[in-house]
Amino acid sequence: MTKINGGTRYCPNKQEQTCISTHHKSDSQRQSTKPYIQLEYDLTPYKFNKILIIGLGQLGLPVARYVKERGFEVYGYDINQKAMDVAEQTAAIKKTTNFAGFDAYILCTSTHKPDDIFTPEIEGLFQIANKIAKEAKSGALVSIESTVPKETTRKVFEILRHRLHVVHAPHRWYALEEKTHGVNQLRVIGGVRDCCLKVGMQFYGAPLMTQSPSGKGLGIPMHPVSNIEVAETTKVAENAHRYLQIAFAEELYLYCQANNVNFPELRDALNTKWNVEILEPREGIGGHCLPKDTKMFLDSSKGIKSKILTAAMNVDEDYSKYRIERGQKVKSSSIV
């Protein structure tokens, strides 16, 4: 047990950790998985009232609506004036271009190139950070919910000249099941510093933590991690894993077509085993989030390049070509 920045960090050793198989976990097991880091709040609870949501698109607008429903004074900013108008008209989110005076900033900006939604780009995020650095008050919270590659959050912290608390709380929002997998679901959070994590946990809500301070928060179950790189890697690894699952289903389907095997029947038979879950390939890997985030994961590695992900990309191309050659639809995905 050590003191860090005025707080207590508990680091369980290997004998104290409980390992649950990651091959086949139920929802209840996921909910009960204990975080590696446990916090006690020995700092004065931070008061949050005025919140700015930056980026009001597919993710940002539901976030703004949820934060407002929790009783906060919510403002919104987007480089697209129409997005701000829609947020104001549909969710009563106040428009602003002035970043001064807010207690927390939630960044929901796009992290792809404007002219290529399949290619990662985070320059827009850094531009926002520069504006916050010029206008925000010291001690406010900056939470990055956008998907970002490793080391991005620390760069934002440097841009802000260490004046603000910075956390990364990657979203897990799913458009087709917003009630179940929307803003309020179990998520990961990491802080650049220990004090950043504590302030972030106060804002989001800390059901997994002990001795959480009372006060207004988002009431979202959060799984805190011990360093920011783990939090950043979580989202891109999640989507890379999903990419692999779909690509395997695609390849298995192509195998069945080439070898005269009934794929639906084979899939049903395989899925009778407790630790096997073969997906339906359907129209393949569409949308932009899975391809973009998988590329982000590949590009973020300094020492090793994933051979299996590279092969999965080739499989997806083969599957798309197979469907197109037969006049079948290739549909965009709604998974983000």
Q: Could you describe the 3D structure shown?
A:
- The strands form 3 sheets. This protein has an 8-stranded mixed sheet, with helices on both faces.
- The chain is 38% helix and 15% strand.
- Strand 5, helix 3 (81-91) and strand 6 (94-95) form a beta-alpha-beta unit.
- The chain folds into 2 domains: 2-226, Rossmann fold (3-Layer(aba) Sandwich), CATH 3.40.50; 235-325, N-(1-d-carboxylethyl)-l-norvaline Dehydrogenase, domain 2 (Orthogonal Bundle).
- It is α/β, with parallel strands linked by helices.
- It has helices spanning 27-32, 60-69, 81-91, 123-135, 152-159, 194-204, 228-259, 263-270, 289-299, 307-325, and strands spanning 2-4, 7-10, 38-40, 50-54, 73-77, 94-95, 104-107, 112-113, 116-120, 141-144, 165-168, 187-191, 222-224.
- The protein is elongated.
- The model is unreliable at 1-26, 206-214 and 332-336 (pLDDT under 50).
Q: What string, H for helix and E for strand, traces the elements in order?
A: EEHEEHEHEEEEHEHEEHEHHHH
* Poorly predicted regions: 1-26, 206-214, 332-336
Strand content: 5-15%
Q: What profile does the largest beta sheet have?
A: 8 strands, mixed
Structural class: alpha/beta
Work out the radius of gyration. Answer: 21 Å
State the shape: elongated
Q: What is the CATH architecture term of the largest domain?
A: 3-Layer(aba) Sandwich
Biggest sheet strand order reads 6-5-4-7-10-11-12-13
So what's the CATH class of the largest domain? Alpha Beta
Helicity range: 25-40%
Give me the CATH fold name of the largest domain: Rossmann fold
Average predicted local confidence, pLDDT: 84
Our measurement of the CA-to-CA distance between the termini, rounded to an integer number of angstroms, reads: 38 Å
